[in-house]
Amino acid sequence: MKIGGGVTFTAWPIPGTGGFDIEQFSGHNVLSGPPPLARFHQTARDPKLIWRRIHDLDLILPAKQPNGSIVMGHPVAVSKQCIGLSAHSGIPSTLVSRGDKVHITWGEATPPEAKAPGVPTYVATYDRTTGQLGSRVLVGYGPPANDVYNSPCITMDSQGHLHVLICTHGRTFKYVRSLLPNSANSAWTEEEDVGAGLRQTYVGMVCTPDDTLHLVFRLWLDDHRYFPASHYATLATMSKRPTEPWSEARPLVVAPFSEYSIFYHRLTLDRAGAPFLSYDYWSTFWFYRTDHRGTRRSLLMSSDGGNTWKLAQSHQFIQ
């Protein structure tokens, strides 16, 4: 917590161990107090299925006291079968809130013999007023099953409708939307493919002031346009305006090498609602990593709602 206009800071310990996610601003979730946190504590892993992990998922709700201190609420148990959180690329949002309602999304591990169609994705709403976590709602499956990379992502629009990306590992993302605002415990749209046949992983999602959803993700291509003998990775974007279908996938960055690549990207918004995209690059080819040591992180931004992108300049941070 900052004190005195950001001159000094005070640290408040978070209970427990494991991985954490903190609610991030994604367009229409303006917080009036300390942001809620999700805690992922791994309890088991499957040596035969390397991407199958089992976590306890808990919701932690910090509260600011009259004297300015922060008190961490007792953890609220959400799931004992959570698949985990894949946060090194995309950094999908686990949490989004408005008023007294906190909405959380997660995927779960399933028994391998069950042959599930994908990672089951759930959403639940916690009511700060009543202190109760509502019943969880199954909104779809992200293939393949038992894959920790299939962490879902949630945001909300200006009306409070929840939007969830059911994520995949090299398959096509699925999309659902709540029919009532600010509640997971209502009807949802049927899950739909974001695009036909897209090989998508690592989503980042925001909702701009005009209620347009923007996605950035790694997209595999094998169209031989840049690499005639192999597949290659791109950092691509898609968008969806209210009542309209998803746009075509559009690559923003093409990997300089074929085969395995990753961008360690992060999509966010500034206070005016302009999207900013930070990314690095990692190649499977060892000579690239050893000959070019250090970070290659870059920052792109769009000043026209995602239609065009360019490298950000210093004056665009001054408002």
Task: Outline the structure in words.
The chain is mainly beta. It has two domains: 15-196, no CATH class; 208-319, no CATH class. A hairpin with a 7-residue loop joins strand 15 and strand 16. It starts with a strand and ends in an 8-residue tail after the last strand. Strands 9, 10, 11, 12 and 13 form a five-stranded antiparallel beta sheet that branches. Strands 3-4-5-8 form a four-stranded antiparallel beta sheet, with no helix packed on it. Strands 14-15-16-17 form a four-stranded antiparallel beta sheet, with no helix packed on it. The protein is globular. Helix content is 2%, strand content 43%. The protein contains one helix and 27 strands.
The outline comes out as: globular
Counting helices, strands and paired strands, the structural category is: mainly beta
Distance between the termini: 23 Å
Query: What's the number of domains?
Result: 2
Radius of gyration over alpha carbons?
Answer: 20 Å
Beta-strand residue percentage: 35-45%
Low-confidence stretches: none
The biggest beta sheet is recorded as: 5 strands, antiparallel
What's the SSE pattern?
Answer: EEEEEEEEEEEEEEEEEEEEEEEEEHEE
Give the topology.
Layout: E1 2-3, E2 8-9, E3 19-22, E4 37-46, E5 49-60, E6 62-64, E7 70-72, E8 76-82, E9 95-98, E10 101-107, E11 119-127, E12 132-133, E13 137-142, E14 153-156, E15 162-166, E16 174-177, E17 192-193, E18 200-207, E19 213-221, E20 232-240, E21 250-254, E22 261-262, E23 266-269, E24 275-279, E25 282-283, H1 286-291, E26 298-301, E27 310-311
Antiparallel strand pairs: 1-2, 3-4, 4-5, 5-8, 6-7, 9-10, 10-11, 11-12, 11-13, 14-15, 15-16, 16-17, 18-19, 19-20, 20-21, 22-25, 23-24, 24-26, 26-27
